[in-house]
Amino acid sequence: MKGTFVLLLVLLLFVSVSAMPNASAQTGARTDVYHVHFAKAALGKGAEQGDYLKKQGPNAAMPGHYIVLRHQSGEDWDYVVIEHLGTKTTVDAAGNPPSAAARDLNGWHTDTFVNGPAWPEFAKAMGLDDPSKSAGSVYVVSVFRAAPGHRDPLEKSLGQPPAAGDATAGNVLMAHLEGGPWHFLTIARYSSWQDFATNEKTSAADTLKPGGGWMQVRDHSSYHNDTVTDRIAP
Question: Whole-angstrom distance between the N-terminal and C-terminal Cα of the chain?
Fold first, then answer.
C-alpha cells in the first residue's frame, strides 16, 4: 500500500512527457519535445500580448529555442508560441504562473506538448538558423484530428514530401503527446508572400485530383484548420 501511495503522489505532482512516439507512429525522426501555446489576446490587448509572448521565460529549458507566429488569416487565435524543450520535459505542480498584469493580457489559451524533429532541423525548416534572411517569411500553421482508425494513414499523408513545383522553403510535422484535441500539427514556411500566393494558385488546380493531398486530408481527418501567419520572434 505504501508503494502505491507514493506512486500516486508522484503522478499527482509531476507529469513526465516523453518525446518518443509509439511504434505505429514512427514515420520520421521526431526525437524532441516542443510546447505549443495558442493564445487569444484580451480585448484591446493584442499588441501588448504579442510583446509579452516575444520574451522567452527566464527559466526556459532551451534559451533561444522558440518561435512566435502572429495570426493573419484563419483560426480564432492571435499568436502561437512553439518552444523547444529538449528530448524530455517534466511539468511541476507549482507551475510557472505569470504575473497578474500578464494574465490580464490573455483572453484564452491552450497548451499542447508535441514531438518533433531535433532543434537544428526545426530551426532550418523555419528559417531560424539565420533569422535576418527569413524576416519576410510566411507560415501556414495547421492542426489535424484523425478520424477513428485513420491516424496512421493521415500521418503518412501529412508526412509526404512536397510535390514537384511546391514553393515551400521548409516543412515540419509534429505529433500530439498531451494537451489539445488534435493529433498532428504542420507548419509550412514560404520565403515571401509572393511565394505563398504562387503556391496557392498552383495547388488549387490539383485540388480534386484522385490521391492528391487535398483529398487525402478529407479521407482521413475528422477536423482540421489552417492559419496564415507571420513571424514576430525571434
Answer: 50
Domain extent for 128 = 2-233
Could you tell me the pLDDT band of residue 22, with boundaries at 50, 70 and 90?
A: very low
**Residues 69/230, Cβ–Cβ less than 8 Å:** yes
CB 79 within 8 A of CB 53: yes
C-alpha cell at 84: 523547444
User: For the chain, how many structural domains are there in total?
Assistant: 1
Grid cell for residue 137: 517569411
- Concatenate the DSSP letters of all residues of 137-161 into one string: -EEEEEEEEEPTT-HHHHHHHHTSP
Let me know: does 59 contact 214? Beta carbons within 8 Å: no
pLDDT tens by residue, 99-114: 888 999 999 999 999 9
146: its cell numbers? 484523425
Q: Which of 124, 185, 118, 176 is nearest to 158 (CA)?
A: 185
Q: How far apart are CA 56 and CA 67, in angstroms?
A: 10
**Angle, CA of 47, 68 and 233, to the nearest 5°:** 80
